[in-house]
Design a protein that fits this description.
CATH topology of the largest domain: Beta-Lactamase
Strand content: 15-25%
Number of strands: 22
Strand order of the largest sheet: 2-1-5-4-3
CATH class of the largest domain: Alpha Beta
Helix content: 25-40%
Shape: elongated
Mean pLDDT: 84
Structural class: alpha+beta
Number of helices: 20
Low-confidence stretches: 1-13, 488-497, 540-555
CATH superfamily of the largest domain: PAS domain
Length: about 675
């Protein structure tokens, strides 16, 4: 029978029966029917074998992308769903050799084609291929199968392919994977603790680095919370997880104590956590797990506790300060009222005056201590260092404290080094350090006690050790005894007085000298020992010649003195004391009056308050220096401000001396005694 059939086989549309397999097929089917096949290796469709016709008929009728490569040159046939895969290669690809169409990917697909031509079907999923189908190279991905296409005799004559482009899917998966990776990186690097537990047994599914660092182990994933963290049992966390999983309600905890151990033999350590247990729900709304997120707040809580403790110390210190200042004010007020009555005999007047002087000196010491500790803690202290023999410093400190030691009838045993031991330091400050220690030993040792002082020089240090058999130190106070206000906080009703800042000052001053101080005590009633350690100088420098005399002649005769202070009581009292010493004293309460009197009386010494109602002491000092009557007078600044900046301003204004109120009368007398004879 002829392949073209008979007239009875011709369909009603006039198409030959041999081409009925090309019926339909959309754009490609129409193209096949109208195509000039003379140049195609496949020849005219009417000559195609029955097997190829069957394959083409199936392709044209399918909604799935397909192609068939047939014959020696693998002529290329495809269907409409395959057109988007070809891109600009359509329609020229129809009937062309397979190799010419996909030359850019031939090295990738040729081995698969050969396997199909050998009778073995292949399947590839998401195969990456770089195609050139839109005028540029683009990365694509395909899932496809190559199947042997057999002719009418059963021999493999070509390749049939069913394929789908999955480029968009792969790109979406990659983007999702990258996003997941970014999220996991953020998750891992998050400073807070993060974990995810699943199921009613709370099996760890995810834990980040911070969580594992907190817990002290990394093998958590896959274990239940109770299995991985057995030491947490009894702390309430497992019960909270059960509650959140059952109720579906989140739980938020703030500064919750958490005792953990970071190793099999490691002790429990206390941490404090802020955290939230957030239930995780599935699509149906059922709780399937819990998201754990939080922060280790241990350091913050410690800081807050320290701030609260410091605030309590501050309040207790202010109460102590008020108490300490009231104590001397009471006898001062009483003595002043008695003097005001004017009915006292000479002995009673002296007694009242002694009380006022003694208590005022005590108040001055308190204020000076406060100023000292303020300057030290703010780093405003400048040491005037020189080479010193510690034995001489000890002698200076003992000179200050000896009256208290003798008044309490203490026995003092002193063992010096036996040879000079030199340090580089500020004599005044080191005397202050040692006198503070000795003063405490004398003050807190019952009358008739035993105080021992020893100076030694082991290795490269000089050590001064002060031991007493006094009241001792409570064990819980000892670690904090050098903290500011600790004493005031621990014993606010003690009868010995003081503000609890002396030892803090000792520690700070010792540190400024490159040294240290340490306290020891076996407990209440068992005495105390304080050890001061300073770096030793190996080679002492030559000491200055103390025999050299001053160029100016010391003045011992009475002087003309003017006191300028808007505090009339203070000015009058200072004037009275200077008059008792034999000086001729005048008093003014403002700058204008001081200038007028200076022109007529030509004072040799002016004690000048800085704060005046009509000017300030600095400006007045400059005016006095500019006047011929007082340009060579000795100017002494009296002020309540004793910082380095205040002293600098006084010096720039022309003052010779700077004294902090209330003025030390001994220091005033010393200055007056040194006024040169030429000024007398």
């Amino acid at each position: 029978m002829s392949d073209r059939g008979t007239a009875a086989d011709i369909p009603d549309d006039g198409q030959e029966p041999s081409l009925r397999f090309l019926s339909g097929g959309g754009e490609v089917g129409a193209l096949m029917r109208s195509q000039d096949w003379s140049r195609s290796p496949l020849g005219e469709p009417a000559t195609w074998p029955a097997a190829l016709r069957t394959i083409v008929s199936l392709m044209l009728g399918s909604g799935f992308p397909m192609f068939c490569a047939w014959g020696k040159d693998l002529g290329f046939l495809y269907n409409d769903p395959y057109i988007p895969i070809l891109g600009d290669k359509h329609p020229a690809s129809l009937g062309a050799p397979f190799h010419d169409i996909w030359a850019e990917i031939w090295d990738d697909i040729h081995p698969l084609i050969e396997r199909a031509l050998g009778g073995q079907a292949t399947y590839m999923e998401k195969l990456p291929l770089v195609m050139h189908r839109h005028g540029y190279d683009e990365q694509t991905y395909f899932t496809f199968s190559y199947s042997p296409a057999r002719d009418d005799d059963g021999d493999v004559a070509g390749v049939h392919c069913a394929c789908v482009e999955v480029t968009g899917q792969v790109q979406a998966e990659r983007y999702r994977d990258e996003e997941n990776q970014r999220l996991m990186t953020l998750f891992e690097q998050a400073p807070g603790i993060i974990a995810v537990v699943r199921g009613p047994d709370h099996v760890f599914e995810i834990t980040n680095k911070s969580y594992m660092q907190l817990i002290g182990r990394t093998d958590l994933v896959g274990k239940t919370a109770r299995e991985a963290l057995p030491y947490v049992e009894g702390q309430g966390f497992f019960e909270l997880l059960d509650q959140v999983y059952t109720s579906g309600e989140p739980f938020v905890g703030h500064a919750v104590p958490f005792d953990l151990t970071r190793g099999p033999d490691a002790p429990l350590e206390r941490r404090y956590l802020d955290f939230i247990y957030q239930p995780i729900r599935d699509a149906a709304g059922a709780v399937v797990g819990i998201f754990v997120e939080g922060s280790d707040m241990t350091v913050r809580k410690q800081v807050e506790d320290e701030l609260r403790a410091a605030n309590r110390q501050k309040d207790q210190f202010l109460a102590m300060l008020a108490h300490e200042l009231r104590n001397p004010l009471a006898p001062i007020t009483t003595a002043a009222q008695l003097l005001k009555l004017g009915t006292l005999d000479a002995k009673a007047v002296r007694n009242a005056s002694d009380i006022i002087a003694r208590q005022a000196e005590h108040m001055t010491d308190l204020v000076n201590d406060l100023l000292d500790v303020s300057r030290v803690t703010r780093g405003l202290v400048t040491l005037e260092k020189e080479e010193l023999d510690v034995n001489a410093v000890v002698a200076g400190a003992l000179e200050q404290v000896r009256p208290l030691i003798e008044s309490k009838r203490h026995s003092l045993t002193m063992q010096l080094s036996g040879e000079p031991v030199h340090v580089l330091g500020d004599r005044t400050r080191l005397v202050q350090v040692l006198s503070n220690i000795l003063n405490n030993a004398a003050k807190y040792t019952p009358s008739g006690g035993d105080i021992r002082l020893k100076v030694s020089a082991p290795d490269d240090d000089v050590v001064v050790c002060v031991t007493d058999n006094g009241i001792g130190v409570e064990p819980d106070v000892l670690p904090y005894i050098f903290d500011l206000f600790t004493q005031a906080e621990r014993t606010p009703d003690r009868s010995q007085g003081g503000l609890g800042i002396g030892l803090a000052l000792v520690k700070s001053l010792a540190a400024l000298h490159g040294g240290s101080v340490e306290a020891r005590s076996e407990g209440p009633g068992k005495g105390s020992q304080f050890e001061i350690r300073l770096p030793r100088l190996s080679v002492p420098e030559a000491a200055p010649d103390a025999s050299a005399g001053d160029e100016d002649t010391v003045q011992t005769e009475p002087l003309r003195v003017m006191v300028v202070d808007d505090n009339q009581d203070a000015a009058q009292m200072l004037a009275m004391l200077l008059e008792v010493q034999g000086h001729a004293v005048s008093v003014e309460f403002d700058g204008r009056g001081a200038l007028q009197r200076a022109r007529t009386e030509r004072p040799q010494v002016v004690l000048l308050d800085i704060g005046l109602p009509d000017t300030d002491g600095y400006a007045l000092a400059r005016q006095l220096r500019a006047m011929s009557e007082t340009h060579d007078a000795t100017l002494i600044a009296l002020t309540g401000y004793g910082q380095d900046e205040d002293r600098r301003q006084a010096e720039e204004a022309g003052f010779d001396h700077h004294l902090v109120k209330p003025a030390d009368l001994a220091r005033v007398a010393e200055i007056l005694a040194q006024v040169p004879r030429a000024r007398a």
